[in-house]
């Protein structure tokens, strides 16, 4: 049963080092939302690109388009792909909001949400298709 579940779900591998950077970035931006891009090859994360949330908001994030384009260019120059858009939920569950789903830029790219609602931060990785989300499995090693 467990094996068939793993085959059906998308499994993402994340190093402990990058995981800790992602969690710290979110923590450093509290009480506001943090955001950024997560890059890698196929299902393996290899780099994290924090972006400054220009809204200073605890419920929304925004980054100028030019800044995003520059960051994507840096990622592509390293022969990596953008795997996910990351943002935090400072005080709500790590579940995509209707706003998150309607503003997700590209269904080829995942959505990573880190929640600080509980004493231990929770990280979730979602695949988005036609504004419907599906959770992926994250392996931290
Ligand atoms: Zn959100």
Q: How many distinct domains?
A: 1
Number of distinct helices: 4
- Separation, N- and C-terminal Cα atoms: 23 Å
The CATH architecture assignment turns out to be: 3-Layer(aba) Sandwich
The Cα radius of gyration reads 14 Å
Domain JAB1/MPN/MOV34 metalloenzyme: 11-138
InterPro entries: JAB_dom_prok (IPR028090), JAMM/MPN+_dom (IPR000555), VirAsm_ModProt (IPR051929)
Keywords: Hydrolase, Metal-binding, Metalloprotease, Protease, Proteasome, Zinc
Protein name: Proteasome lid subunit RPN8/RPN11, contains Jab1/MPN metalloenzyme (JAMM) motif
Structure report:
- Keywords: Hydrolase, Metal-binding, Metalloprotease, Protease, Proteasome, Zinc.
- This is Proteasome lid subunit RPN8/RPN11, contains Jab1/MPN metalloenzyme (JAMM) motif.
- GO terms for molecular function: metalloexopeptidase activity; zinc ion binding.
- InterPro entries: JAB_dom_prok (IPR028090), JAMM/MPN+_dom (IPR000555), VirAsm_ModProt (IPR051929).
- There is one protein chain.
- This protein has helices at 2-8, 16-29, 65-77, 98-103; strands spanning 11-14, 35-41, 44-51, 81-89, 110-115, 122-129, 132-140.
- The chain is an alpha/beta fold and 141 residues long.
- The protein has one domain: Cytidine Deaminase, domain 2, CATH 3.40.140.
- The radius of gyration is 14 Å and the shape is globular.
- 28% of the residues are buried.
- The structure holds zinc ion.
